[in-house]
Amino acid sequence: xxxxxxxxxxxxxxxxxxxxxxxxxxxxxxxxxxxxxxxxxxxxxxxxxxxxxxxxxxxxxxxxxxxxxxxxxxxxxxxxxxxxxxxxxxxxxxxxxxxxxxxxxxxxxxxxxxxxxxxxxxxxxxxxxxxxxxxxxxxxxxxxxxxxxxxxxxxxxxxxxxxxxxxxxxxxxxxxxxxxxxxxxxxxxxxxxxxxxxxxxxxxxxxxxxxxxxxxxxxxxxxxxxxxxxxxxxxxxxxxxxxxxxxxxxxxxxxxxxxxxxxxxxxxxxxxxxxxx
Length: 277
Description:
Helix content: 40-55%
CATH class of the largest domain: Alpha Beta
Strand content: 5-15%
CATH topology of the largest domain: Endonuclease, Chain A
Distance between the termini: 43 Å
Order of helices and strands: HHHHHHEHHEHHEEEEHH
Structural class: alpha/beta
Shape: elongated
CATH architecture of the largest domain: 2-Layer Sandwich
Largest sheet: 6 strands, mixed
Number of helices: 12
């Protein structure tokens, strides 16, 4: 399903939600209370600005007595989108965010990856997959990149561990291109990048990636990922703890200027290695 037709389908989902809510006599706030989201979220669902998670679609069916309509439509739309089900909602929220703070302990974050770097990751994860499947995954990954190039792009702050710079994903030449792009985006003030050096030792979120997203008219949300699973967290107490963790990561990371120097240095090492192979 093309992006335009998928959006039109979500708009139909929202229009049908509004119609059935009004027929049932619920205000947005009253329905939100019944399905455990805010009235503002119900309004965003109805305008197709935000997409509900599966459990919310199921509760909408239960409260509005729609015989599984919203769950079936949700499953069809999620199935037809190019991302894993557990990641699809995080992608939607990226597009709405006014600020994204991301931490990756061992990889360059997806929004900053070059096609060559991303392809090497996909091949490593799917060694028996066809070229067509790898290219499909790659198109989905790279389609997110324009988010940081648009004039209305969110403030984007990435903290990575030095490990992410030193694992030769795709080989030296691929890493040269990846680190050069990372440095260029930082120098063009499109992103803010900090590196936690090996010398920093232990830190507050070793081995744990997360993405903290803030919005114009909705509470902040955290996305974190495990093995073939992802979780969106919007409980205020949990989000506050994640924000505190990000502050601790900033404290142990190199400054943006020193981080760029380290990225350039590692890129030069790869460049020399590539020239001798």
